[in-house]
């Protein structure tokens, strides 16, 4: 929403209040975000610290009761990134960023040259890109029910087809808008299950401390797509025009579909992921309940010691 909502908001502010208005808006919005982030209370972070603090005692008490908690596993960044399912997730992330960033710098020039549109009008056209993001929850539901493989491979293929349609010359403005809606719809669909896929990869490794590294890989992949998209699209647009820019983007999308079909999680993998997640959550709840019991026992022992220490001698 941030990437796709920026162009229409920036364009309208530019036309209404001048070229500095979008920058003032960004500064104000950044300050608001910083304040909101500073106000958040990370309950799960506190729970993680407690689990680490009481880990040894929890395992001793569990063994005494005949319960065996899962043993933490250490993995390297290379082990995570070379997992086939992770490679597929990184590929989808890069494709999504590439798809967005290849249109963002070239489409405004195309609309200005073809229709003589202003910044504000171009921003309004980009709303067609933004609106389809409302289907992301539906895409997530499809991924939860049928797995990410069928959703991502289908959506990437459709996005490539719509990019080919976008390359058709002399389309009316309403045709371009409808095409952008279709591209935004497919793009929003194939990025929806990616964070779940990355979480599943980390969960299967057994390394509960690897989530930050895995999501860092996600950010790197997105940044890489945002980096190469404008460079490739700008070069092709400058030398061959908007038509071949769209065709090139479509070909790149098609080239990576086989990786998604081979390596992304299917329905069976999704069911296994859900079962593993439920087991982990149940184990976490048991451990947190045990920590509360340990704390209560310690407080009771401290109160008893204090009462014994200050009890007047007969």
Q: Would you kindly provide a written description of the structure presented here, covering whatever features stand out?
A:
Keywords: Membrane, Transmembrane, Transmembrane helix, Transport. Helix content is 82%, strand content 0%. With 314 residues, the chain is mainly α. The protein has a domain at 76-286: MFS general substrate transporter like domains (Growth Hormone, Chain: A). α1 packs antiparallel against α8, α10 (148-166) packs antiparallel against α11 and α13 (211-240) runs antiparallel to α14. The longest helix has 43 residues, at 267-309. The N and C termini lie far apart (75 Å).
How many helices does DSSP assign? 16
Succession of helices and strands = HHHHHHHHHHHHHHHH
Low-confidence parts: none
Strand content: under 5%
Class derived from helix and strand content: mainly alpha
Q: What percent of the residues sit in helical stretches (DSSP H or I)?
A: over 70%
The CATH superfamily of the domain at 76-286 is MFS general substrate transporter like domains
CA gyration radius, whole angstroms: 26 Å
Distance between the termini: 75 Å
- Report the sheet with the most strands, covering strand number, pairing sense and barrel closure: none
- CATH topology of the domain at 76-286: the name is Growth Hormone, Chain: A
CATH class of the domain at 76-286: Mainly Alpha
The mean pLDDT is 85
CATH architecture of the domain at 76-286: Up-down Bundle
Estimate the global geometry from the Cα principal axes.
elongated
């Amino acid at each position: 929403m941030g990437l796709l909502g920026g162009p229409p908001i920036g364009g309208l502010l530019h036309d209404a209040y001048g070229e500095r208005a979008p920058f003032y808006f960004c500064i104000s919005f950044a300050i608001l975000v910083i304040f909101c982030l500073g106000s958040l209370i990370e309950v799960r972070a506190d729970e993680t610290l407690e689990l680490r603090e009481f880990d040894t005692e929890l395992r001793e008490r569990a063994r005494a009761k005949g319960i065996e908690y899962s043993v933490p596993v250490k993995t390297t960044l290379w082990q995570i990134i070379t997992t086939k399912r992770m490679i597929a997730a990184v590929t989808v992330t890069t494709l999504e960023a590439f798809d967005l960033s290849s249109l963002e710098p070239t489409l405004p020039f195309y609309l200005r040259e073809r229709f003589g549109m202003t910044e504000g009008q171009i921003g309004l056209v980009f709303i067609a890109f933004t609106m389809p993001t409302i289907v992301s929850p539906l895409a997530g539901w499809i991924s939860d029910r049928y797995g990410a493989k069928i959703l991502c491979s289908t959506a990437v293929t459709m996005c490539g087809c719509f990019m080919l349609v976008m390359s058709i010359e002399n389309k009316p403005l309403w045709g371009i808008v409808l095409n952008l809606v279709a591209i935004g719809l497919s793009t929003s669909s194939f990025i929806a299950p990616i964070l779940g896929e990355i979480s599943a990869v980390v969960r299967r490794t057994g390394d509960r401390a690897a989530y930050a590294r895995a999501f860092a890989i996600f950010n790197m992949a997105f940044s890489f797509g945002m980096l190469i998209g404008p460079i490739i699209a700008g070069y092709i647009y400058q030398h061959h025009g908007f038509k071949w820019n769209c065709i090139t983007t479509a070909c790149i999308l098609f080239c990576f579909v086989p990786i998604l079909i081979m390596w992304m999680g299917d329905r069976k993998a999704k069911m296994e992921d859900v079962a593993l997640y439920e087991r982990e959550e149940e184990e976490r709840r048991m451990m947190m309940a045990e920590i509360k019991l340990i704390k209560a026992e310690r407080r009771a022992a401290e109160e008893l010691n204090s009462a014994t220490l200050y009890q007047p001698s007969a």
